Each structure stands twice: as structure tokens, then as C-alpha cells.
Amino acid sequence: MIVMKNPTLFIFAVIFGGFLCLACDDDSSSTTNNENNNNFTSLTPDNILDACLIRDACEVLNGGYISPCVTAHYDQVEQQHTQPIWNDLYRCVLKTGGVCSEVEKCFGNGILPQSCDPNTQKGYCDGSIRYYCDSFSGTMYAMDCGEAGYECVVGYDGNTACTEAACDDSTFEVACNGTLMRVCDNGYINTTDCGVLGLDCVRGEIEEGVFKLFCMGDGGQCDAETYVPTCDGPNKVTCDQGVVTTIDCTALPGDKMCVPPEDETDIPRCNPAGQECEEGEEYCLDSFVARICIDGYFYDRDCTELGFTRCTGLGVNHDIGAHCTH
Fold it and tell me: What is the rounded CA–CA span in Å between residue 264 and residue 247?
């Protein structure tokens, strides 16, 4: 059973100081993850939720709770333009029918991932394929950087990354490319798209000869010490780097609203508009249905429709989170 309330989602915890996640649509009808999208050519937010539940059930990069997996897909991966890589992985996951050996192969470049020692085997590159040792599970997983038009690069610290290109930290000049911030760190280019937040990339000189990139708005000048950040209707208005910056909370994917500061030491935030639940609420509604709170709304998933037999919690009392199991 799937309960949908809004077709889009997002999270920018760094900018907003809170989770901006999957919101809902006003359609209460039940569907399955295969309905109307058998080939998963275009992934929807509820496809991502299903993939995260399946991935978790098969103990692949599982982290205890489901909502961070979902919100992360619409956070750093979109800002870093690596979402196509994860879309490719999740399409593979959604086609497995919950067969865990096949799910593991999705994260092993078509074969079962091997064990690894994160202290001695950080990863390697094989063409555009990035192999990396997950320190939590001691498993060597893989992803195809080429799905995002990136290449695999081994950084100075031995860890691998999907990136635009390798670079030299000592000679690389930070620069904006449209709304993209491009900086060199650990021997490869890191990209952040300010446009995802509706902001511009600005290159500023923080001291003589030293430049830094910022995601900034296009408002007038302001003094951060005297400016009073506020909500202007749906807009979060703050003073960042001496410039008035406005972010329309309702324009971000998901169901968001601007919440005014609680006191003079606080800032306005784009918070979930839903009132059904608090972020982090996850539990089994019954023996089969996982209930996940995202963006202030409950999402219900029947584990049997994802290829599993029941819903259970973790821990001694099986009361931590909601997880599908065989």
C-alpha cells in the first residue's frame, strides 16, 4: 500500500538548518512501485522511497532509518550533479523484486560485491567505474561515474570520487561556471549547483589574493549585525555575505513553508509544512506496513509489495525504525 500526498521532495539541511524532504500529493489511492512505470525510465520520489526500503532490507548501505536515504537523494546528489548515478543504481534495485543477491549486484557493477578492509583498501578506479570500501560494512561497492558524465578519480587521501576531473589544489583557481561553484579539494574538482537553491554563484575576495565562492541572492546590500532575518510570506529572507538573500520555500520541491525565528538569536527556516508527524518518526503500522515520516507527512509502504514478507523494527525490542525483512 502506498499513500502519496505530494510528488516532489527536497532537503537542504545545511542552508535551512532542518530537513527538507519528500512531501505529498492529494492522491490517497493505493499503487505499487511497478504500476505505470515498469521500466523506471523516469524515477519518481516514491520510487526512491521504495528503492531505499529495498536497499535497507538487503543490508546494502543501510543506516538504521529510511528517511535520510530518501532526502539525501534530493540533497547533495542533486547539488553535486551525481543524481543520474544514483538513479541508475535505484532503477536496478527496483527491478530486482526484492531478491537481495540481485540488489547487491546492482552495487557491485553486475557481480556480488567483495569484502574489503577500509584501513588498507579505500577503493580504486576501473575506467569510469568507481569502487569504494564502505567502512561500516567492510564491503567494496561500485558505481558508474559515467552516468553523470563524470570520471572516477583517486584523491590525495586514497579515496575515490566521481568528479568532473582531477586537479591540483595548489594551482587550481576557484571559479563560477554559471550557477556552479567549482573548487579543487583532495585532488579533484568538487561541484555545487547554487541554482538548485534558486541562488547565484558569486566569487568574492575574502582577503588580498584569496578568493572564495558563495551561493548568494541578488538583493541589496545589508549589514549582518543589524539586519533582522524574517519570513516574507513564503520567502525566507536573510543577510548572507552582506547581500539580502531570498529563498522561496514553496518553490523548493516538497511541501515547505517559511517558519519565522523563535527569538532574536534564531533564523527563519524552510521547514516541512506537514503536521501529521515529526521528522524521524518511522515504525511498523502492522506486521506488513512500514510507516515513514517525510516532510511532515506519513508514507505507508506494504513490504509484501516490495518482495518481502513483513515489517519489523531493529534493536532488542524491535522498535527502532521500520524495516522490510524476508
Answer: 20
**Nearest partner of 155 among 133, 187, 183, 131, judged by Cα:** 187
Matching residue, cell 500526498: 5
Q: Give Rg (Cα) of the chain.
A: 21
Cell numbers linked to 122 = 579505500
User: Other C-beta atoms within 10 Å of 177: how many?
Assistant: 11
**Domain ranges for the chain:** 1-74+253-326
- Residues 244-280 pLDDT 10s: 999 988 887 667 899 999 888 899 999 988 999 988 8
What pLDDT is attached to residue 251? Answer: 80
Strands 320-325 and 310-314, sheet pairing? antiparallel
Query: Length of the chain, please?
Result: 326
The DSSP element (H or E) to which 102 belongs, if any, is: helix 100-106
Other C-beta atoms closer than 10 Å to the C-beta of 24 total 26
pLDDT for the residue 20? 31
